[in-house]
Design brief:
Blueprint lengths: L4 E3 L8 H9 L2 E3 L1 H10 L2 H14 L7 H4 L2 H4 L7 H18 L2 H14 L22 H17 L6 H14 L10 H9 L20 E3 L2 E3 L3 E4 L2 E5 L2 E10 L10 E3 L9 E7 L15 E10 L3 E7 L7 E8 L2 E4 L3 E3 L7 E11 L4 E16 L11 E6 L6 E6 L1
Parallel strand pairs: 1-2
Antiparallel strand pairs: 3-4, 4-6, 5-8, 6-7, 7-12, 9-10, 10-11, 11-18, 12-17, 13-14, 13-15, 15-16, 16-17, 16-18
Helix pairs in contact: 2-3, 3-10, 6-7, 6-8, 7-8, 8-9
Amino acid sequence: MNFPVLAEFMIDTLPSKELLRSLREGVCVSQETIDAYLAKGDPDSRFTAELLMRISGRPCDIDENAALTREEFLDSPAPDLLFELKQGVLSIYYGLLKGDLKLLQQGLEVAALSSHLFQKESGTFLPLWVREEDYRLGELLGWGYLIFYLSAHLGHEEHRPFSDTLLAKIRSLSPGGLDDLPTLIPLLLMVIDPLLTEAPSVELPKIQPRDLHVNEGRYLTLSGVGTGLGAMVKEDVTIVSFGPQIGSLGSSSGFGIYNFFSADFERNRGWVRLVSPDGEGSSKTVSRAKLGQGWMHVAMDARSLKVRFVGDFHSEPLYFVFYVNANKAHVDQKVQLLPDSLDRYDGRASRVRFEGVKNNFVIETKKQAEIELIPLAGQNFFWGADFLLAYRINYSEKCFEWLIN
Protein backbone atom coordinates (compact mmCIF):
# COMPACT_ATOMS: atom_id res chain seq x y z
CA MET A 1 0.00 0.00 0.00
CA ASN A 2 1.15 3.55 -0.76
CA PHE A 3 0.05 6.27 1.62
CA PRO A 4 0.39 9.94 0.54
CA VAL A 5 0.11 11.41 4.02
CA LEU A 6 1.98 10.71 7.23
CA ALA A 7 0.03 11.45 10.41
CA GLU A 8 0.80 11.13 14.10
CA PHE A 9 -1.97 10.07 16.46
CA MET A 10 -2.14 10.40 20.21
CA ILE A 11 -3.29 6.90 21.07
CA ASP A 12 -4.54 7.72 24.56
CA THR A 13 -6.89 10.52 23.47
CA LEU A 14 -7.89 9.85 19.87
CA PRO A 15 -11.12 7.89 19.31
CA SER A 16 -10.38 4.67 17.45
CA LYS A 17 -12.86 5.46 14.69
CA GLU A 18 -10.88 8.61 13.76
CA LEU A 19 -7.77 6.49 13.36
CA LEU A 20 -9.71 3.93 11.30
CA ARG A 21 -11.28 6.61 9.12
CA SER A 22 -7.84 8.09 8.41
CA LEU A 23 -6.44 4.70 7.44
CA ARG A 24 -9.37 4.07 5.10
CA GLU A 25 -8.70 7.45 3.47
CA GLY A 26 -5.10 6.48 2.78
CA VAL A 27 -3.43 8.19 5.72
CA CYS A 28 -0.47 6.39 7.22
CA VAL A 29 0.23 6.68 10.92
CA SER A 30 3.67 7.83 11.92
CA GLN A 31 6.39 5.66 13.34
CA GLU A 32 5.99 7.62 16.58
CA THR A 33 2.41 6.40 16.88
CA ILE A 34 3.47 2.81 16.27
CA ASP A 35 6.27 3.17 18.82
CA ALA A 36 3.74 4.52 21.34
CA TYR A 37 1.64 1.36 20.94
CA LEU A 38 4.74 -0.79 21.35
CA ALA A 39 5.77 1.15 24.45
CA LYS A 40 2.46 0.39 26.18
CA GLY A 41 3.71 -3.18 26.38
CA ASP A 42 0.44 -5.09 26.70
CA PRO A 43 -0.34 -7.81 24.11
CA ASP A 44 -3.24 -5.94 22.47
CA SER A 45 -1.17 -2.78 21.97
CA ARG A 46 1.80 -4.69 20.53
CA PHE A 47 -0.47 -6.52 18.12
CA THR A 48 -2.12 -3.22 17.12
CA ALA A 49 1.37 -1.89 16.32
CA GLU A 50 2.03 -4.96 14.16
CA LEU A 51 -1.18 -4.42 12.19
CA LEU A 52 -0.36 -0.73 11.64
CA MET A 53 3.05 -1.75 10.32
CA ARG A 54 1.53 -4.28 7.95
CA ILE A 55 -1.07 -1.79 6.69
CA SER A 56 1.58 0.83 5.96
CA GLY A 57 3.97 -1.61 4.32
CA ARG A 58 6.65 -1.20 6.97
CA PRO A 59 8.92 -4.14 7.83
CA CYS A 60 7.30 -6.17 10.58
CA ASP A 61 9.45 -8.45 12.71
CA ILE A 62 6.98 -9.12 15.53
CA ASP A 63 6.49 -12.86 15.83
CA GLU A 64 2.98 -14.15 16.35
CA ASN A 65 4.04 -15.74 19.61
CA ALA A 66 4.86 -12.28 20.95
CA ALA A 67 1.49 -10.79 20.05
CA LEU A 68 -0.60 -12.67 22.56
CA THR A 69 0.51 -15.49 24.80
CA ARG A 70 -1.25 -17.47 27.48
CA GLU A 71 1.55 -16.72 29.91
CA GLU A 72 0.94 -12.99 29.59
CA PHE A 73 -2.83 -13.06 29.52
CA LEU A 74 -3.30 -15.79 32.10
CA ASP A 75 -0.88 -17.24 34.56
CA SER A 76 -3.02 -20.27 35.33
CA PRO A 77 -4.57 -22.98 33.17
CA ALA A 78 -8.15 -21.97 34.05
CA PRO A 79 -10.28 -21.14 31.00
CA ASP A 80 -10.91 -17.54 30.02
CA LEU A 81 -13.36 -16.90 27.20
CA LEU A 82 -11.99 -13.55 26.05
CA PHE A 83 -8.52 -15.05 25.77
CA GLU A 84 -9.86 -18.05 23.85
CA LEU A 85 -11.72 -15.82 21.37
CA LYS A 86 -8.65 -13.64 20.78
CA GLN A 87 -6.38 -16.64 20.45
CA GLY A 88 -8.77 -18.25 17.96
CA VAL A 89 -8.98 -15.15 15.77
CA LEU A 90 -5.21 -14.64 15.83
CA SER A 91 -4.62 -18.29 14.98
CA ILE A 92 -6.74 -17.90 11.86
CA TYR A 93 -5.02 -14.62 10.98
CA TYR A 94 -1.53 -16.09 11.19
CA GLY A 95 -2.74 -19.29 9.54
CA LEU A 96 -3.86 -17.24 6.53
CA LEU A 97 -0.62 -15.25 6.46
CA LYS A 98 1.60 -18.33 6.62
CA GLY A 99 -0.64 -20.86 4.86
CA ASP A 100 -0.54 -22.95 8.04
CA LEU A 101 -3.43 -25.45 8.14
CA LYS A 102 -2.76 -26.36 11.77
CA LEU A 103 -3.20 -22.74 12.90
CA LEU A 104 -6.43 -22.45 10.90
CA GLN A 105 -7.81 -25.58 12.55
CA GLN A 106 -6.85 -24.28 16.00
CA GLY A 107 -8.89 -21.16 15.30
CA LEU A 108 -11.83 -23.21 14.09
CA GLU A 109 -11.78 -25.20 17.33
CA VAL A 110 -12.52 -21.95 19.14
CA ALA A 111 -15.38 -21.24 16.70
CA ALA A 112 -16.82 -24.69 17.42
CA LEU A 113 -16.66 -24.10 21.20
CA SER A 114 -18.09 -20.58 20.86
CA SER A 115 -21.12 -21.84 18.96
CA HIS A 116 -22.33 -23.27 22.29
CA LEU A 117 -22.04 -19.91 24.08
CA PHE A 118 -23.64 -17.54 21.55
CA GLN A 119 -27.28 -17.89 20.54
CA LYS A 120 -27.48 -17.44 16.76
CA GLU A 121 -31.15 -16.38 16.73
CA SER A 122 -30.98 -13.70 19.42
CA GLY A 123 -27.29 -12.94 19.87
CA THR A 124 -27.64 -13.80 23.56
CA PHE A 125 -24.19 -14.41 25.01
CA LEU A 126 -23.57 -16.82 27.90
CA PRO A 127 -20.68 -15.41 29.97
CA LEU A 128 -19.20 -18.71 31.09
CA TRP A 129 -15.54 -18.25 32.03
CA VAL A 130 -15.90 -14.46 32.17
CA ARG A 131 -15.26 -12.79 35.52
CA GLU A 132 -17.70 -10.03 36.38
CA GLU A 133 -14.97 -7.40 36.48
CA ASP A 134 -13.87 -8.43 32.97
CA TYR A 135 -17.37 -8.38 31.47
CA ARG A 136 -17.39 -5.91 28.57
CA LEU A 137 -20.27 -6.94 26.36
CA GLY A 138 -19.30 -4.99 23.26
CA GLU A 139 -15.76 -6.35 23.23
CA LEU A 140 -16.90 -9.93 23.78
CA LEU A 141 -19.51 -9.64 21.03
CA GLY A 142 -16.87 -8.13 18.73
CA TRP A 143 -14.43 -10.99 19.15
CA GLY A 144 -17.32 -13.45 18.86
CA TYR A 145 -18.35 -11.80 15.59
CA LEU A 146 -14.80 -12.08 14.25
CA ILE A 147 -14.41 -15.78 15.04
CA PHE A 148 -17.71 -16.68 13.33
CA TYR A 149 -17.08 -14.32 10.40
CA LEU A 150 -13.72 -15.96 9.74
CA SER A 151 -15.08 -19.47 10.19
CA ALA A 152 -17.82 -18.78 7.62
CA HIS A 153 -15.19 -17.61 5.12
CA LEU A 154 -13.26 -20.80 5.71
CA GLY A 155 -16.20 -22.81 4.42
CA HIS A 156 -18.48 -23.13 7.43
CA GLU A 157 -21.67 -21.40 6.40
CA GLU A 158 -23.43 -22.72 9.50
CA HIS A 159 -21.54 -20.02 11.40
CA ARG A 160 -22.69 -17.14 9.20
CA PRO A 161 -26.00 -16.71 11.10
CA PHE A 162 -23.94 -16.25 14.27
CA SER A 163 -21.81 -13.50 12.73
CA ASP A 164 -24.83 -11.78 11.15
CA THR A 165 -26.77 -11.79 14.43
CA LEU A 166 -23.81 -10.60 16.49
CA LEU A 167 -23.06 -7.77 14.05
CA ALA A 168 -26.70 -6.65 14.21
CA LYS A 169 -26.57 -6.73 18.02
CA ILE A 170 -23.33 -4.72 18.08
CA ARG A 171 -24.92 -2.09 15.84
CA SER A 172 -28.02 -1.98 18.05
CA LEU A 173 -25.82 -1.28 21.08
CA SER A 174 -23.74 1.44 19.42
CA PRO A 175 -24.41 3.51 16.27
CA GLY A 176 -20.78 3.21 15.17
CA GLY A 177 -20.94 -0.57 15.14
CA LEU A 178 -17.54 -2.24 15.05
CA ASP A 179 -15.75 1.11 14.90
CA ASP A 180 -16.94 1.89 18.43
CA LEU A 181 -15.23 -1.24 19.79
CA PRO A 182 -11.58 -1.40 20.90
CA THR A 183 -9.34 -0.38 17.99
CA LEU A 184 -7.83 -3.83 17.56
CA ILE A 185 -11.10 -5.44 16.46
CA PRO A 186 -11.99 -3.27 13.41
CA LEU A 187 -8.29 -2.83 12.59
CA LEU A 188 -7.81 -6.59 12.45
CA LEU A 189 -10.86 -6.93 10.21
CA MET A 190 -9.40 -4.29 7.88
CA VAL A 191 -6.15 -6.26 7.58
CA ILE A 192 -7.62 -9.75 7.37
CA ASP A 193 -10.39 -9.12 4.82
CA PRO A 194 -7.99 -9.09 1.82
CA LEU A 195 -6.53 -12.41 2.98
CA LEU A 196 -9.96 -14.05 2.81
CA THR A 197 -10.31 -13.68 -0.97
CA GLU A 198 -8.17 -16.78 -1.44
CA ALA A 199 -8.94 -18.48 1.87
CA PRO A 200 -9.09 -22.27 1.66
CA SER A 201 -11.96 -24.38 2.94
CA VAL A 202 -10.80 -26.01 6.15
CA GLU A 203 -12.56 -28.91 7.81
CA LEU A 204 -14.20 -28.01 11.10
CA PRO A 205 -12.71 -30.11 13.90
CA LYS A 206 -15.17 -32.49 15.53
CA ILE A 207 -14.71 -31.71 19.20
CA GLN A 208 -16.80 -31.95 22.32
CA PRO A 209 -17.15 -28.72 24.32
CA ARG A 210 -14.19 -28.66 26.66
CA ASP A 211 -15.08 -28.61 30.35
CA LEU A 212 -18.73 -28.06 29.46
CA HIS A 213 -21.81 -30.22 29.71
CA VAL A 214 -24.73 -29.02 27.55
CA ASN A 215 -28.23 -30.46 27.67
CA GLU A 216 -31.34 -28.76 26.25
CA GLY A 217 -30.41 -25.20 27.13
CA ARG A 218 -28.67 -26.08 30.38
CA TYR A 219 -24.94 -25.53 30.70
CA LEU A 220 -22.68 -26.80 33.47
CA THR A 221 -18.95 -26.40 33.92
CA LEU A 222 -16.73 -27.33 36.86
CA SER A 223 -13.78 -25.20 35.77
CA GLY A 224 -13.06 -21.52 36.15
CA VAL A 225 -11.65 -18.99 38.61
CA GLY A 226 -14.04 -16.38 39.93
CA THR A 227 -16.69 -17.51 37.45
CA GLY A 228 -19.97 -19.40 37.73
CA LEU A 229 -21.02 -22.99 37.34
CA GLY A 230 -23.17 -22.52 34.29
CA ALA A 231 -26.20 -20.95 32.63
CA MET A 232 -29.75 -21.82 31.52
CA VAL A 233 -31.55 -20.48 28.43
CA LYS A 234 -35.21 -20.23 27.39
CA GLU A 235 -35.31 -17.84 24.44
CA ASP A 236 -36.16 -14.50 26.10
CA VAL A 237 -35.41 -15.55 29.71
CA THR A 238 -31.87 -16.50 30.70
CA ILE A 239 -30.08 -17.47 33.89
CA VAL A 240 -26.80 -15.94 32.73
CA SER A 241 -24.73 -17.34 35.59
CA PHE A 242 -25.19 -19.22 38.85
CA GLY A 243 -22.90 -20.37 41.61
CA PRO A 244 -21.71 -19.97 45.20
CA GLN A 245 -21.16 -16.56 46.79
CA ILE A 246 -19.24 -15.89 49.99
CA GLY A 247 -19.50 -12.50 51.68
CA SER A 248 -21.33 -9.38 50.56
CA LEU A 249 -23.80 -9.61 47.66
CA GLY A 250 -22.73 -6.14 46.58
CA SER A 251 -19.36 -7.39 45.38
CA SER A 252 -18.47 -10.14 42.92
CA SER A 253 -15.14 -10.86 44.63
CA GLY A 254 -16.63 -13.77 46.59
CA PHE A 255 -18.57 -15.23 43.67
CA GLY A 256 -17.73 -18.40 41.82
CA ILE A 257 -15.45 -21.36 41.90
CA TYR A 258 -11.70 -21.92 41.84
CA ASN A 259 -11.10 -24.95 39.67
CA PHE A 260 -8.72 -25.55 36.78
CA PHE A 261 -9.56 -27.63 33.71
CA SER A 262 -11.67 -30.61 34.76
CA ALA A 263 -12.66 -32.33 31.54
CA ASP A 264 -12.89 -35.64 33.37
CA PHE A 265 -15.83 -34.62 35.54
CA GLU A 266 -18.68 -37.09 35.56
CA ARG A 267 -20.96 -35.53 32.94
CA ASN A 268 -23.15 -33.30 35.10
CA ARG A 269 -21.74 -33.65 38.61
CA GLY A 270 -18.52 -33.24 40.53
CA TRP A 271 -16.54 -31.34 43.17
CA VAL A 272 -15.26 -27.76 42.98
CA ARG A 273 -13.32 -25.42 45.24
CA LEU A 274 -14.69 -22.01 46.22
CA VAL A 275 -12.96 -18.65 45.97
CA SER A 276 -12.13 -16.51 48.97
CA PRO A 277 -14.09 -13.25 49.28
CA ASP A 278 -10.93 -11.26 50.07
CA GLY A 279 -9.15 -12.04 46.78
CA GLU A 280 -7.52 -9.00 45.19
CA GLY A 281 -8.60 -9.74 41.63
CA SER A 282 -7.13 -8.49 38.38
CA SER A 283 -8.32 -8.06 34.81
CA LYS A 284 -5.27 -9.81 33.39
CA THR A 285 -4.55 -12.63 35.79
CA VAL A 286 -6.61 -15.07 37.76
CA SER A 287 -3.91 -16.12 40.22
CA ARG A 288 -4.70 -13.15 42.49
CA ALA A 289 -8.19 -14.49 43.09
CA LYS A 290 -7.63 -16.33 46.35
CA LEU A 291 -8.44 -19.97 46.85
CA GLY A 292 -11.06 -20.37 49.56
CA GLN A 293 -11.34 -22.93 52.31
CA GLY A 294 -14.58 -24.55 51.16
CA TRP A 295 -15.61 -27.28 48.76
CA MET A 296 -18.92 -27.84 47.01
CA HIS A 297 -20.41 -30.86 45.28
CA VAL A 298 -22.81 -30.04 42.46
CA ALA A 299 -25.19 -32.21 40.44
CA MET A 300 -27.58 -31.04 37.73
CA ASP A 301 -30.12 -32.84 35.58
CA ALA A 302 -32.99 -31.80 33.30
CA ARG A 303 -35.10 -30.45 36.17
CA SER A 304 -33.05 -30.03 39.32
CA LEU A 305 -29.85 -28.58 40.72
CA LYS A 306 -28.33 -29.96 43.93
CA VAL A 307 -25.36 -28.64 45.92
CA ARG A 308 -23.61 -29.71 49.10
CA PHE A 309 -21.05 -27.53 50.88
CA VAL A 310 -18.12 -28.88 52.87
CA GLY A 311 -15.74 -26.70 54.89
CA ASP A 312 -15.60 -23.87 57.40
CA PHE A 313 -17.74 -20.92 56.28
CA HIS A 314 -18.56 -19.41 59.68
CA SER A 315 -16.54 -16.23 59.15
CA GLU A 316 -18.63 -15.00 56.18
CA PRO A 317 -22.25 -15.22 54.96
CA LEU A 318 -22.74 -18.03 52.45
CA TYR A 319 -25.15 -17.86 49.49
CA PHE A 320 -26.00 -19.65 46.30
CA VAL A 321 -26.99 -17.10 43.68
CA PHE A 322 -28.64 -16.86 40.27
CA TYR A 323 -28.12 -13.92 37.91
CA VAL A 324 -31.14 -13.67 35.62
CA ASN A 325 -32.25 -11.72 32.54
CA ALA A 326 -36.06 -11.31 32.55
CA ASN A 327 -38.77 -8.67 32.20
CA LYS A 328 -40.18 -9.18 35.70
CA ALA A 329 -39.94 -11.44 38.74
CA HIS A 330 -42.62 -12.82 41.11
CA VAL A 331 -42.08 -14.19 44.63
CA ASP A 332 -44.63 -16.80 45.67
CA GLN A 333 -47.21 -15.12 43.41
CA LYS A 334 -47.54 -12.21 45.82
CA VAL A 335 -44.62 -9.85 45.15
CA GLN A 336 -43.65 -8.50 41.73
CA LEU A 337 -40.35 -6.79 40.99
CA LEU A 338 -39.09 -5.03 37.86
CA PRO A 339 -35.49 -4.56 36.66
CA ASP A 340 -33.57 -1.40 37.54
CA SER A 341 -35.91 -0.49 40.41
CA LEU A 342 -35.23 0.33 44.06
CA ASP A 343 -37.63 -2.34 45.34
CA ARG A 344 -36.28 -5.63 46.62
CA TYR A 345 -37.46 -8.70 48.52
CA ASP A 346 -35.76 -10.00 51.64
CA GLY A 347 -37.52 -12.86 53.43
CA ARG A 348 -38.73 -16.42 53.16
CA ALA A 349 -40.10 -17.96 49.96
CA SER A 350 -40.34 -21.28 48.16
CA ARG A 351 -41.05 -20.18 44.57
CA VAL A 352 -39.65 -17.45 42.35
CA ARG A 353 -40.82 -16.97 38.77
CA PHE A 354 -38.92 -14.95 36.17
CA GLU A 355 -40.96 -13.86 33.16
CA GLY A 356 -40.07 -12.90 29.63
CA VAL A 357 -42.46 -12.07 26.81
CA LYS A 358 -42.97 -15.70 25.80
CA ASN A 359 -41.19 -17.84 28.39
CA ASN A 360 -40.43 -18.06 32.09
CA PHE A 361 -38.14 -19.78 34.54
CA VAL A 362 -39.52 -21.05 37.85
CA ILE A 363 -37.02 -21.75 40.62
CA GLU A 364 -38.52 -23.72 43.54
CA THR A 365 -37.36 -25.23 46.80
CA LYS A 366 -39.19 -28.01 48.64
CA LYS A 367 -39.58 -25.82 51.71
CA GLN A 368 -39.40 -22.13 52.53
CA ALA A 369 -35.93 -20.68 52.20
CA GLU A 370 -34.31 -17.38 53.17
CA ILE A 371 -33.83 -15.40 49.95
CA GLU A 372 -32.92 -11.96 48.68
CA LEU A 373 -34.25 -10.87 45.28
CA ILE A 374 -32.54 -7.71 44.04
CA PRO A 375 -33.29 -5.86 40.78
CA LEU A 376 -30.17 -4.90 38.84
CA ALA A 377 -29.44 -2.31 36.17
CA GLY A 378 -28.17 -4.67 33.46
CA GLN A 379 -25.67 -3.21 30.98
CA ASN A 380 -22.02 -3.94 31.81
CA PHE A 381 -22.51 -4.87 35.46
CA PHE A 382 -23.08 -8.36 36.86
CA TRP A 383 -22.95 -9.89 33.35
CA GLY A 384 -25.80 -7.65 32.20
CA ALA A 385 -28.29 -9.38 34.50
CA ASP A 386 -31.65 -7.84 35.44
CA PHE A 387 -32.04 -9.68 38.76
CA LEU A 388 -29.94 -11.27 41.48
CA LEU A 389 -31.63 -14.11 43.38
CA ALA A 390 -29.63 -15.16 46.43
CA TYR A 391 -30.36 -18.12 48.75
CA ARG A 392 -28.82 -17.91 52.21
CA ILE A 393 -27.16 -21.19 53.10
CA ASN A 394 -27.66 -22.29 56.70
CA TYR A 395 -24.40 -23.39 58.32
CA SER A 396 -26.14 -26.28 60.04
CA GLU A 397 -27.75 -27.49 56.81
CA LYS A 398 -25.32 -27.23 53.93
CA CYS A 399 -27.33 -29.21 51.35
CA PHE A 400 -29.70 -27.47 48.97
CA GLU A 401 -31.88 -28.52 46.05
CA TRP A 402 -33.78 -26.45 43.50
CA LEU A 403 -36.35 -27.51 40.94
CA ILE A 404 -35.91 -25.32 37.86
CA ASN A 405 -38.50 -25.37 35.09
